Amino acid sequence: MSDILAMTAVAARQALDNKSISAVELTEAYIKAGQDTSENNAYVLTTPDKAMDMAKASDARLARGDAGLLEGIPIGVKDMFCTKGVETTASSRILKGFVPTYESTVTQNLWQDGAVMLGKINCDEFAMGSANETSAFGAVINPWTASDGPLKGKALTPGGSSGGSAAVMAARSALLAPGTDTGGSIRQPAAFCGLVGLKPTYGRCSRLGIVAFASSLDQAGPITRDVADCALMMTSMASYDKGDSTSIDAPMPDLMAALSKARNEGVKNMRIGIPDEYTIDGMPEQIVTLWEQGRQWLEDAGAICVPVSLPHTKYALPAYYIIAPAEASSNLARYDGVRYGQRVEGATLDEMYAKTRGAGFGDEVKRRILIGTYVLSAGYYDAYYIKAQKIRRLIQNDFHQVFSDVDALLTPSTPSVAFALGDEDKDPVSMFLNDVFTVPANLAGIPAISVPAGLSSDGLPLGLQLIAPALREDTLIEGAAMLEKAAGFDHVASGAAS
Amino acid sequence: MSDKTPDYNPDHNSDHNVIDKTTIHKIAKLARIEIAPEREDALCGELSTIISWVEQLGECDTAHVEPLASVTGHSLPMRDDVVTSGDDPDAVLSNAPEGASHFFVVPKVVE
Asked: What is the CA radius of gyration of chain B?
């Protein structure tokens, strides 16, 4: 069994092709792994019968030589993706019982390519959070544990909002996991769980059928064990979709070719910018050291690293926490107890709305809707919302300027390692700081990847982030392949299934 | 368009909430969210912390900057004004908390 779970998706695809394993065997192993690791609370719904049916269909296609890119690969789907006929709640009470009558484009692409659905995965409520603690289903426990230091013996967060997705990947209870990233929700959990996480260019993945949080920022992307799996899964997830008016009609570069190229030739003459502004007060010394190590690794692979400046970086986070709640307050207006989800009766229509929303939303979601309502309200709109949009322009301009000189940027993924569940300061702003390195790429709509680069002194994963210009996911894969090779990160979480 | 932030006070005193209960009531009404009375004090503090923190944007000069609403840089695509899907009221209503004869049911609005 352990040999099966140890295979990456690329390795499993080869094993399926050469018939050394069947899709049914692979799926059975992952269903069992999910059961064996259920204490981490990552699956909110399992669909074993559906998984077995899909696996059998995959075996039939494999037998007749008609296999897709992800044929027979078992995946866990973040509960932000609408799945036809399978309850989808965004980990919110207000959507309890909602069974979509349609499939999200991204998951449709995955099924089209032969992937097998294991179930739906826990996340922060409406993807609003950085610790997976705002979920109506409760927190997810990170399969990683500290081997030493103050966090030893404590249950840790897997990060958020795609915390459950990262947890199932680290626990080896799914082989691939699609996430969504509005301000870092793929990359931060990937970093906390020793995984690769890619947020593509805004518009690469259709938003059709993804529960909307902040529409101008939301992007789906892969969470995988390694860079090769990331290239494979990204290729499947991305598509031009007329059903999403912000979908980009541009071909995805051949990511598998980019990976081979980097592995064979290195990243000779790739210019990497090291942004001055990503050095922040109070950042642990080992993250600074790892960042410096990453620069060295890329130079060893042939890259040229130069210091660059993105002067408006410090304003990204506060601008994000105006724009994202503003869009959320508008998007979440649809949860009114009329068309879907839960309803709490009231004497009047307005009372029914208020009671439904008061009971259905959790505290963090309420806070963000209220902040969004405030910054969009008469008299404050220009001062907050328009101001934040102007800052957004300046941040995008910063990136445009540095990308005239460099191919990609190297930064830490997060300002800390995974923290203990329930331990984080209850001040909402301190939780926001988790996203300090990831938010700028969302504001600018550009792609970014987190790669596991080492362990902290306490034995917890640390990630490095690469950021590239729009549409250059190939550059990210090339650089990430070099970081991965140099880091040689082959650690497995103590809570992984075996 | 003004860049002036109302009530902006760089020496913001954390004992003073920029969002008071009157404001909470107003925005909760606008957002159609019932707030439990015992949560109001805490919420004033939490929202005030967030708003005070985002007000640091006031120090950044944006006088000649165009707001950025969409990063895609392309205008929204046009399509023919024809029906592409629909005519499936059962599917549309399948998740409704209350429906009748292919309609959503809501509390009485007109007396």
From this structure: 23
